[in-house]
Design brief:
The protein has 335 residues and is mainly alpha-helical. The protein has 13 helices and no strands. The chain is 79% helix and 0% strand. Helix 10 runs antiparallel to helix 11. 34% of the residues are buried.
Length: 335
């Protein structure tokens, strides 16, 4: 393609499209039809230039024109309660269900690693000595010590809000940073696993593993599941960058990235529930069995929600991506 000849031949159409866009609502019926036709032509021109003779200056102008024309033709769209309902009953659970082959193994391996770290620390005094002074560790693990008072160190509402914020940030980082070839996600996940393993090991060494489990299980089941889902999805996103499959790398990353960002909103709601449990149930005076029962019930409810609604949505063709009408225009791919 001779780009100069092509641009000269079609510049009048681009100028006319720009003029019609500036007229806004003052368009007549025939002018509106002309705008639609010129928009379709400009989109084709952009695709041809992009695939055969890339030029940043011309591509920039056409991209802007096509985006403005598309907005004018399709109109702006406001989110509705129907969108929220669809997201909660189909989009979010479908995204979680689709990524289960990533986050379920992540959860299993992370739990096993935390258990191994806990056993290693709990049965090796020399490892404990590298973590802290003996007196400090005794203060931390004794009845009424640091591990127990941590959950009641602040008012329940503010503590729940703080926990929710911190966990939501960690989950979002896993989802967003997955695009960097998985490495940041692995580090974030390992940090969380290490924290759990160290706490387990120190309480194990003090003969109070049952107390540790009684404190972490009520909220930790749901909280860690959300983190595992975020980490597994982040790893999936990173692998998509490495191996996009039959899709182009750009389209694959865009599709999986949109689903991951939507998942961040859903996981924020899950972590909000977990934060409420951690703020109000974990430090409460309820018997240990009652607190753990609440945690198990919340975990089973989430897994059932994903299995039933997510499985149904995926079988109906939902991928967790946004609706077609809300996606950006996709350029045709040259053969």
């Amino acid at each position: 393609m001779d780009l100069d000849v092509f641009a000269t031949a079609h510049r009048a159409e681009w100028d006319r499209l720009e003029m019609l866009l500036k007229m806004g609502r003052r368009l007549t019926g025939s002018e509106a039809d002309e705008l639609v036709e010129l928009y379709q032509r400009a989109a084709t021109h952009l695709s041809l230039i992009h695939s055969q003779a890339p030029d940043p200056r011309i591509e920039g102008r056409l991209t802007q024109l096509v985006a403005r024309a598309r907005s004018t033709v399709t109109g702006t769209r406001k989110a509705s309660w129907q969108d929220v309902t669809r997201f909660l009953t189909a989009g979010f659970p479908a995204a979680v269900y689709r990524s289960r082959h990533w986050w379920v193994p992540t959860a299993v391996l992370s739990t096993l690693l935390a258990a191994v770290i806990g056993w290693w620390i709990g049965t090796h005094p020399e490892i404990q000595a590298t973590i802290g002074a003996p007196d400090d560790l005794r203060e931390l693990t004794k009845p009424g010590g640091g591990y127990e008072t941590y959950y009641s160190s602040h008012p329940a509402a503010s503590f729940a809000a703080q926990v929710w914020t911190n966990n939501a940030q960690a989950a979002a980082m896993c989802l967003v940073l997955g695009a960097f070839f998985c490495l940041p996600v692995i580090w974030i996940l390992f940090t969380n696993v290490l924290n759990v393993g160290v706490g387990m090991g120190l309480m194990w060494s003090a003969g109070r593993l049952d107390t540790f489990l009684g404190l972490i299980l009520p909220h930790g089941l749901l909280e860690l599941t959300a983190v595992f889902v975020a980490a597994g999805t982040g790893l999936k996103l990173g692998w998509t960058l490495i191996d996009p499959g039959s899709r182009s790398r750009r389209d694959a990353l865009a599709e999986e990235g949109r689903a991951a960002l939507g998942m961040a909103l859903g996981l924020a709601l899950v972590l909000f529930v977990s934060g409420l449990i951690e703020g109000f149930v974990t430090p409460s005076g309820l018997p240990t069995w009652a607190r753990i029962t609440i945690g198990v019930a919340a975990e089973l409810a989430f897994l059932l929600y994903v299995r039933v609604l997510g499985g149904r949505a995926v079988r109906a063709g939902d991928t967790g991506d946004v609706a077609v009408a809300q996606r950006g225009a996709t350029l045709p791919t040259a053969a």
